[in-house]
Amino acid sequence: MTLERKFVLVIEDDPALRDALVELLSDEGIPVEAAPNGKTALERLRAGLRPAAILLDLWMPEMDGSSFRSEQLSDAALRDIPIAVFTGSANADGFEARFPDVETIRKPVNAAQLVDVVRRLARMSRDSEA
What we know:
This protein has helices spanning 15-27, 38-46, 65-73, 93-98, 111-124, and strands at 8-11, 32-35, 53-57, 83-87, 103-106. It is α/β, with parallel strands linked by helices.
């Protein structure tokens, strides 16, 4: 299945950064949905939204990236959706130790690296529905 038939869910609380990520990925031909925080994203996922991959900010209000990932893993319907976390925090090591299967991208984000990671993760997804 090609990436064009899938989409990526961007979860980011900063509206300007969220819009920039959506624009960057869209300009690269990657369909994108966006959510302002982990809580909203989780509600949408539990309602049936099925992205090929998730790009997750680590530090957000409402529900941070760590809480989101814990909730995602506890839900059999959602646990296999691959995730990349992006963070500017030097304290991401605890997250990486707790969730070693999640790729971490450090801010400031290198656009080419981000696009490469998203494309690779989207291909890893077993979910073929967009």
